[in-house]
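Appendix B, record 7
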Amino acid sequence: MSELQLPRLISNHMVLQRNKEIHIWGRDLPGHRVMVSFRGEEAVAQTDEKGNFSLFLQKQEAGGPFSMLFRDDLGNEEVVGDVYIGEVWFCSGQSNMELPMNRVKDRFPEDVADCKNTQIRTFKIRENGVFTAPLAEPESGEWKSVQPETILDFSAAGYYFAKALQELLKVPVGFIDASLGGSLIESWMSREMLHGMTAELALAEKYSDAAFVKGQLLKNEQQSNAWHEHLDAADQGLKQHWEKECYNNENWGMVTVPFRFDEVEELKGFIGSVWLKRNFTVPQEMAGKPAKLWLGTIVDSDVAYVNGEQVGITYYQYPPRKYEIPKGLLREGTNTIVLRVISEKAQGRFTEGKKYAIFNEQGEIPLGGTWSYCIGAACEHVPETDFVNWKPTGLYNGMTAPCHKYTIAGVNWYQGESNTHHPDNYLDLLRRMIEGYRKEWNDPKLPFQIVELPNLMVDMEGAEEGWRVLRELQRRSAVIPDVDVAVTIDLGEDNDLHPQNKKDLGKRLALLAAARLGIPVESKGPEVTEITVASDEANNLRTIRLTCSHAEGLLASSEDKGKEILDFEVVNDNGEVLQPKTQIKGQEIVLTIPDKETEVKLIRYCYRTSNIGALVYNRAGLPMSPFVRRVYEETV
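Structure tokens (predicted):
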């Protein structure tokens, strides 16, 4: 094995950042010279006493493919091939950044079928929580271009951003994907960034004990296994094989799918297993053919059987239930589907507004409607899982810090859902993180693009205030220099924490990045620049005019909530909330309310988890962000 060693990031198929000095580093025996040759340039570095070398290559224009040659004075050589130069972005956050193309392939099948593109590449870092100290190099990852065999593993948000940016700039685009579902912002921050935050630093210190972490992981596994084993042992459905077609379910209760468990008296607050069954009729043309079984989303886990054979299993609530029925299983006439559903936290649900059906090219069989059900076994509340890697500093040390030496163009940040339970300090945390990342990347103007939380209504009981507060703080992060915010109030799905439309999200992020580089595109939705209040004493009305920028072709639109604007609110100094009549007039939005003795204090727009009426857009199809504004406020 050669003593000349290169990090994972500097490897075949990498994308290097254009128009910036290119940082190259690696290892060799101490005290030896390493020469790097690239596009006619040669640079030399000498390894230090630990065997590390580091050098910078001159700024380069976009292009490729190229090769980079490494040679040391011992005669060792390494060649890194298929190298492109273009735009490199660091994409991080939680599940909506992590969500792979595999989850959106049914929404955008044409993008998967015709996807080959050697000039879009990703470097995916697997989950890695480290609490002792920041890693010097990533412990996983390799550069991959877009191919039919690789695209389904690409971050959907990252891929659509890269695709749109490449189309706008006509240069190769690579992105480093460091993301993890459920993670808090604190887990992506260093101890230095958390300076003064006593509780967070205490947690980081606690989890730096490897023996303690090992114990927590073992406890998670043991508790989960014990809970499920206890439930399985008590489950009458497993004992009596209720999944079999021959089992008589005449005495079972009845429910209408989709439904929430708390809508059924027997299932209110229920924790344990519930079996559901129904018959369905298969026409001759579908019989014997393979088919798809879609069951929306189910809380929490499920196993699906068709004609007594298991066809699918999902272990937690969020993935869409999309199962494959194999060839030969469906028969003409009466067939049976049985589900075993486990509710772990008394929040069981078949999500409304989703597709419940069996279908193939020959036809579709709806599965919504009446099902029979029976409780298999009741159980105590599932023990809480300690999600170790969500703790402060863990993901920063293991996934982000190892990338700081690699030259990038900017950061896309899609996170916040997990911080909505304690949202008040989120803007401070964002500031700390942005400043820290800029310091570590040695770029005080490193662009950051923050994705605002989208619309959502499901699972919002008691969480509404946190969601809208955090989204408002995300909007206000635009006051930080070189920070832009992508608005997604129209890209969510009211019944799903993980919306499918990452394509338009990627486009909006790409527009922001391109506009910052001087490309003449509209990259932002309408933004209020001035608020004026006037009284119409003759008609006993008060008029509030909102003057907007980015407001060419101002309009109101919604796919499913009508054409009337219903989401503006006026708050007076008594705290009374009034819904105004709202009109668009040119590049202004005019709000009219009854004239009162009180003063207008606040204007709110869509200050809720989801809109109830039409949203405000400009001609470019970009929406206005939800906001809260004091009438005489000069900043955002």
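Remarks on this record: The longest strand covers residues 77-93. The mean pLDDT is 97.
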